[in-house]
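Hello,

Our lab assistant flagged a job as stuck in the queue for most of the afternoon. It eventually completed. Since we weren't sure the result was trustworthy after the delay, we are filing this so someone can double-check. Below is the sequence as submitted and the structure that was eventually returned. Let us know if re-running is recommended.
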Amino acid sequence: MAPRRPAELYRAPFPLYTVRLHPRRPLAITAGGGGAAKTGIRNGVHFLQLEQIGGRLSASLLHCHDTETRATMTMALAGDVIAAGQDNSCHILRFSLQEPEAPGTAGKDGSGERGARRRRGASGGASGGAAGGAQGRAREVRVESLQRVRTDFSPDALQKAVRFSADGALLATGGADGFLRLWEFPSMKKTLEFRAHNGEIEDIALGPDNKVVTAGRDFQCCVWQQDQLVTGLRWHENLPGIPDKAYRYQACRFGAVEGSAGALRLYTVQVPHKRERRPPPCYLTKWDGKSFLPLLTRPCGSEVVSCLSISDSGTFLGLGTVTGSVAIHIAFSLQRLYYVKEAHGIVVTDVAFVPESRPGRELLGGHEAALLSVAVDSRCKLHLLPTRRSLPVWLLLLLCAGLIVVTILLLQLAFPGFL
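-- returned structure --
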């Protein structure tokens, strides 16, 4: 059965480049911009409240944080702190959610519910978002700018990747100059800086034992311990006929192993370095999270993959492509489970799964997983994965026993005296 077309949750007034979901709140954060200095299109970070209304997941705009002339291209989230990659710098923002006041109350400054409705109305609403009554109950968002550090020093400087460590004590950044920089958080004291790649860093993953994985445009994907190279990944060494520089690494992510507490797998995406008239396939590779040996590689279609996300449990991989398509793969087998061709019609810039925490599960509404995708078309779309039907173990055992009994009876009929 073909998947249902994704629902449009929200439409921003500028191209969207990144999306993150809060692990403990029904909150999605989208960001992007249109180059205000040259185009006049504003740049910003938008906070969306997610909720189930009438059995459907909806989004309503809570707050628009203006980033002036800076478009947010990359973003990492640690609790209520955002690390936003804007041009050549990383901006640290902290946000807080204020509960709405009781109906009919308002402060002298109009800060009550009525004033909140006026401010939300002035800032715009979400396309296809929640009804007015739900918006009236929405929280207030306040954003504070904490710090800004420069993270790229190339002539065409651009921070392209940012990641928090699992404990939120470390921040890693990488960009067009090929340098990996590590920062203590929240002091933002730089603890390490070295050239990790000859060219742009496309992605960063922070793994166990303080190891860092970087994917670059120089055909390399490297595992680092501090500034020492632990190993370089070689995804195609067991695939004959693929030259060394036919593919480059586009993305890298660590994911949990379903049913194995504390275990991790590394997932990478390899895309063709050159575009051809008959495009070759892209590939997904699953790696052991400790030895970094390849466990499985599978093609994932001929559309060039632009972004990768992994669900909290490590069960699913989400992919977006430069042609606007969105797919969900099973992490264990790397097989494709869901696919919508040209869901956006233009490059998908980021994808993110709804968290599997209690608030996230309440948003799923009986679905097994939900993936949000954003694109240059300014839209945020929702992709729902229906719960897969499975037979209970006891029923499978009963069926097997019945099959054995039927087989024995047929053999007895065909060969009298068999028993």
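-- support follow-up --
The delay was a queue issue, not a problem with the job. The result is valid. Confidence is low (pLDDT under 50) at residues 107-136. The first strand starts at residue 7 and ends at 11.
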